[in-house]
Design goal:
This protein has 575 residues and is an alpha+beta fold. The radius of gyration is 27 Å and the shape is globular. Strand 23 (548-550) and strand 24 form a beta hairpin. It has 3 domains: 7-106, no CATH class; 113-329, 3-Layer(aba) Sandwich (Rossmann fold); 358-514 and 529-537, no CATH class. The chain has 20 helices and 25 strands.
Amino acid sequence: MSKSTSAFDRLVEWIDAANGSSPMISPVAGISNSDLPRLTRLGAIIVGIFGHEMPQSLAEALTPGRPIKVPDSVKADFLTLIETDGSVRLADLYATVVSSTERRNLGTFFTPRVYAQTIVDGYSDRYGAPSSVVDVGAGVGIFSHITRLKWADARITAIDINPLTLGLQAVMVIVDRLKNMDLVLDDYSRWIRDSVPQGPTLYLGNPPYTRWQLIDQYQRLDLLEAADGLAGARANLSTLFVAMTLARLRPEDSLAMIIPAGWMHADYGKSLRRRIRSESHRRISLRLADSWRFDEAIVDAVLVEIGPELDSEQPIQVADWAGSEILEVTRSTDDGPFERPGYQRQAPVGLDGNSNLVSNYARVVRGTATGANAFFIRPPETWNSLGIPGEYRKAVARRIKPSSDGSNPVIELAELLVLEGYQRGTDRRVDGVISEGELLGLPELYLCSKRSRWFDLTMEVRVPSVILSAFGRDRFHVVDNPDGLAIVNNLFGLYWLDSEASESNSRLTRWLQTPEGQSALMSASSIEANGLHRLSPRKVKSIPFPEFDECSEAEPGAFRLLEKPNSDELWVGAT
């Protein structure tokens, strides 16, 4: 290893030297077998330095059947790494060792320190210090680290089913010589059923965002039972954790967990919404977080804070993260969706009763969901270096960005691997790429596993007539697609119902680019947080589209509305 590289880089290099024949620890829930050899090496470092000081069950879970010799230089680099801001550096190390594809699919997102600190500080301002803190799905311990600094007298229990992340947290507990920390290697749903912490307890954290489809089918019934009827089928794991915690809260207890916001409107969240509204003597705060970005994932999250029971009726508030807009929610037994700050109900822009909708002209469909973007979508030069023939590559729009000079938006291009009709043995270079994906465990991922051939996207490629951005702050980009680019699932496509009606189709495209069209798109969107607007195909299809007629008296490229009796003509400039 080069001495010029950092301790972090040298650690990653040694860990990455693992291969298929390397020793492995026992399988870990939610971790692909392809990641186990590298994680075993990470565990060997932890046990090699700190094993004699950590709980025996945790040390045993991190020890493979065959020993791994860890060089002294690697141990030294590890100790160097944790000298400053150790919890954050260990989170970075784990996130580097585990493939980003696995972490995105399993919903393993580490909480940025600024969010965790704000959550703890806000709770402390409102309620003071709890006697006990339970860090739910503790990971590498960002919340545990902040709470032990904030509340020195609180007893902290960090629970996780993953011995690697809990082992990394154990490192900091040992290094800091903490006496008020309990590390519990267990399934949270089992632990909370059997455990009763002492004194007023805060259940805190960022539990795993694992989607329902990725939860083992035999575990789903147990989780639903633990949720005590407060969450329905299709709930993600973090929503189930909130539900099972709320079901067991004592009057003096409280919770503060940041989870995906889907339960606020989805069917699976009906019982949870009803229960939260009925907790009349607990202060309830639903605070929408800024959309977090991890590689190509955008996480729409909300902090659910439910305080201890008080003597008088308490408010329910829904707010954006900055607190610039706060909605008061009426107490009831209703299970309807929670209204969200910034949500704008769709309103026809001056076209009352207009039934001429976008759906009359086009289908609106989300782009291709590969299930493993880092594998299927790469720059042309990467495919060239791998020797993949052009016949197996399709130009794809990854995202649309505003141009630096404010002119037409810029499409960020890459190439999509499309192995239409490919038979193994046809090309050794293509075979090598497929084998690479299999070593990474991609055939086990949810979307890949649903295909008859996990690597064949042929039936899923989307090539629209017009490309529309799904997210926007000041505007949504609307771009013609004459070059036949495919799109990925962070973009929408318009597909004309009548390809012969070229003039009507082009008018719709141009209108969507105008201020009036943009206003209609904004009105059809929801604001996730921090001003980020989100569209859905259903909402776009329902936008009323004015019927236009060419107006010879107007400046070139302008249109006017038809059938607007008893009103001034509304002129819409085209771009």
